[in-house]
Design brief:
Protein name: Transcriptional regulator
CATH architecture of the domain at 1-54: Orthogonal Bundle
Largest sheet: none
Distance between the termini: 54 Å
CATH class of the domain at 1-54: Mainly Alpha
Organism: Streptomyces sp. R11
CATH topology of the domain at 1-54: 434 Repressor (Amino-terminal Domain)
Shape: elongated
Strand content: under 5%
Helix content: 40-55%
Length: 78
């Protein structure tokens, strides 16, 4: 994964070492299997990454489509 704040590439292990957070937490957050972290871990991660806290936990700009988003709205009959 690319380090957005400083342009340094990070793997799970190197980010875990740099932040002091567990590799498992980092992997779960990166894969979307976990969407929260305690305050201390979140601050450690953003400090290591060099980004703002909101950047780390911001929703995706392109959320996955679900079946309901593909439905065509009903048309008005005259």
């Amino acid at each position: 994964m690319k380090h957005p704040g400083r342009g340094v590439p990070y793997g799970y292990d190197s980010l875990a070492e740099a932040s002091g957070c567990g590799r498992g937490l980092i992997e779960k957050l990166a894969k979307g299997k976990q969407q929260t972290a305690d305050v201390e871990a979140a601050h450690s991660l953003v400090e290591a990454l060099g980004v703002a806290l909101l950047v780390l936990f911001a929703p995706s700009a392109s959320p996955e489509l679900d079946d309901t988003s593909l439905e065509t709205p009903p048309t008005k009959k005259e």
